[in-house]
Design a protein that fits this description.
Length: 245
């Protein structure tokens, strides 16, 4: 079964915009799990413009599903935070300092030795590692050589092409990449710009995805449709087949 991990960064952005503690991020995480989320994702950045390091520490004892911390492992503070908190999974993303949102995956060939060191560091703490990566065969092969447990396929290009009506063309590189990753015994996650419109087709083409991590679109939908209802809508995209309709 493909799990849905809800990225709660946007709730922190809303809280920080006004100050105080509304919405209460800890309650958001508890509610998300009650409403059916299979995991909670956070992506702390050095400027703490949404999730703060203190939030990550406070969330750890409340996440009883799976805790996934995304971030740039070039930041020593990020490494130290993950090793302190010990989530079930760390997703390593090659973000630059101050970057608005993730927009590319790792060059696992150029940074092979560095990533091997990082994977080993987190493995020694008992933390599963996923590398954020574009759907490119050579990069996936190099990712496997680092010892990572999983890759997270960066799906922005899929979402953009899907929106133009070219869904078969959009998904083909990801199907090919996922098949290669599976043959290399890598787990496969996916994330970025997935929404309730394009998620189902991706999952139908790659039914063995381990996890999708979704934040922005899900939270936008929740404003209109309600948080609990939206989580269930997304869950159904991962469980219903076309034949069910």
């Amino acid at each position: 079964m493909t799990k849905l991990s809800v990225n709660i960064n946007k709730f922190a952005t809303l809280r920080n915009a006004r100050g105080g503690n509304n919405p209460d991020l800890l309650q958001v995480a508890l509610d998300a799990q009650t409403f059916g989320a299979d995991g909670i994702t956070v992506h702390p950045r050095p400027d703490e413009r949404h999730i703060r390091n203190a939030d990550v520490r406070a969330l750890r004892p409340l996440v009883h599903t799976e805790f996934n911390i995304e971030g740039n492992c070039r930041e020593q503070k990020f490494i130290d935070l993950v090793l302190e908190v010990k989530p079930e999974q760390v997703t390593l993303v090659p973000d630059a300092t101050g970057q608005l949102t993730s927009d590319h995956g790792w060059d696992t060939i150029t940074h092979s030795e560095y990533l091997k060191e990082m994977v080993q560091t987190f493995h020694q703490a008992g933390i599963r590692v996923s590398l954020f990566i574009d759907p490119v065969a050579d990069l996936i092969k190099a990712a496997a050589d680092t010892g990572t447990d999983r890759i997270e396929l960066y799906t922005e290009q899929y979402a953009q092409r899907y929106a133009t009506g070219k869904k078969e063309e959009a998904v083909l590189p990801y199907v090919t990449a996922a098949a290669l990753a599976k043959s290399l015994n890598l787990g496969i996650n996916a994330g970025h710009d997935l929404d309730r419109f394009n998620l189902k087709f991706l999952h139908e083409q790659i039914p063995y995805l381990d996890e999708v991590s979704i934040g922005h679109a899900l939270i936008c939908d929740a404003i209109y449709l309600g948080f609990e209802n939206t989580i269930q809508l997304y869950k159904r995209q991962l469980t219903e087949s076309s034949a069910d309709k």
